[in-house]
Design a protein that fits this description.
Elements (H helix, E strand, L loop, with lengths): L1 H10 L13 H8 L3 H25 L4 E2 L2 E3 L2 E3 L9 E8 L10 E3 L34 E7 L6 H8 L2 H4 L6 E5 L2 E8 L3 E8 L2 E8 L4 H10 L2 H8 L2
Parallel strand pairs: 3-5
Antiparallel strand pairs: 1-2, 2-4, 4-6, 6-10, 7-8, 8-9, 9-10
Length: 235
Amino acid sequence: MKNLALVSLLLTSGFLVTAQTVDTKKINENVSQKNYIGALNEVNNVKKQIQKLATADLLLALPKTIGEYVLQPVAPTGSDVTASLSLQVSYVRHQDPNKTMTSTSATAATAMPSPMTPMTPGTVLMPGPNAIGLTGESANSIVVLISGNMNLANMLMMAHSGDEMSTMGQDLGEPIRIKGYRALLKMDPYSGATSQMVVGASFVQAIGKGEKDTNLVKSFLEQVDCDKLKAVFGE
């Protein structure tokens, strides 16, 4: 029972995984030998396997291009992953000679840095509730965040509630619907053109660095494969 409890705790991490694609044999062997440290190390190894699977599935939900912007390659590393999945990727203008096309990395963290902390494209992490403006990317790039942390959708939810008292005078942006899902468009003078959407149990955000046209980031949301997102995060 202890063996099953460990594996169950691991796999209830908010995204789907096929049993035969994850090797949990060594976890059970270590637990049966009371080698709990070894078992925990193997749990982390399985988390890495799940991270790669989930990252691959999430990338399938994203368009390869947004207008003149091209999705940058994501190369998952062996870093640990938190219980709730998030993925950050970047799109850059393919004709920009000052932007080097380099492979990005997918890494994990236990907490999201502050909105002013630089981050690497392709990062798998657990964001904090206030991480709305993602920085660390140059102009002429679109930074996309997909997360199971629904605290990030507070602004979107308030905009759709129509409760002016809860906004405290904030300009929350334009509440709209895309494919029937609640979404938000906003021109942020600091972050750039921003779009957000809630799909099932996932939050999606696109920030166009240096972009002043919200139609561009809106077009990204229109191209997202919502069914694939729900397959990973659930309804």
